[in-house]
Each structure stands twice: as C-alpha cells, then as structure tokens.
Amino acid sequence: MADRNFIRDNMGYAPLREAVKKVYGFDIKPILRSHMASATDKNWPATNNVAMRRDTLSDFVRWFTPLGLAMGNSRPSGHAFERAIKLFCILTGRHNLYDREVLQHFQMNSHETQDFKKDTGRLHQLLARNSREP
Predict the structure, then answer these.
(1) How much is the pLDDT for 52?
(2) Which of 5, 67, 98, 104 is the least buried, fewest Cβ under 10 Å from its Cβ?
C-alpha cells in the first residue's frame, strides 16, 4: 500500500496509535512522520500478502498481542493490524521487501469499512483473468 494511507487520519491509524500509547507508553505519530520523511521504503503490507521468517513472526505476535487486546474487536482493528506490521519493522529495524510480481492486493472494501463502493465489474474481470487456463 502507498505511504499516503499509512498515517493519514483513517480507520487503522487511530486505534493503533491509541493502543501503543496505552500499552507501550509512547506516541507513534512522530516516529512515523520521521520515517516517511526520510525513508525510501514508504510502503506497508496488506495482511493477506505477508510472509516472514519464523523468528520475526514470533517477535511480532508477542509485540502485537497486547495491542490487539487493547484495541478489542472493533471494525478498524484489521486496518490497524496491517499498519502494525510495518510499525513493528520500523521500531525493530527489520527491512521489508515487496515483490509485486508474486501477489497483488486489490483494495475491494470487502468488509465495507471504507468510504467507497467496490467496482464489481473490475472484480469480475480480475476473477475471469485468474480463472483462465495458461
């Protein structure tokens, strides 16, 4: 996902920011603003297209579990989770690699948590393309 969606005032950023303040006692806003101003890697992953080493996954789960519990089962928590993966990597100095040739993420608003309606015609084109024999 593009950097403009990472820290703008949207569903995922606010609950993550509040949970980090509550659980870990610091504000992520200046950290993310600094990262976005100086980093060359300004992307963040969609949760369904992530692969990571086992040790990274274990560390992330230990770090994120208290945040998830603090956020609860709210609609924006899935969006917060996506951003949490990138935030964890920033905080721990772990690098991300993005290979757009392997998997693609299509923002289809499948949970109807965003302010747009999906283009079902576009969805049908994608599904038809994916179901064709090579």
Answers:
(1) 86
(2) 104
pTM of the entire structure?
0.71
Taking the C-alpha atoms of residue 120 and residue 125, their distance in angstroms, rounded to an integer, is 9
pLDDT digits (tens, 9 = 90+) for 15-54: 999 999 999 999 999 998 888 888 877 777 666 667 889 9
Query: What gap in Å lies between CA 66 and CA 60, rounded to an integer?
Result: 11
The contacts of residue 27 (CB under 8 Å, 6+ apart) are: 17, 20, 21
What does the pLDDT read at residue 113?
56
Q: How far apart are the first and last CA of the chain?
A: 28
* DSSP classification of residue 101: T
Written as six digits, the tokens of 13 are 């950023």
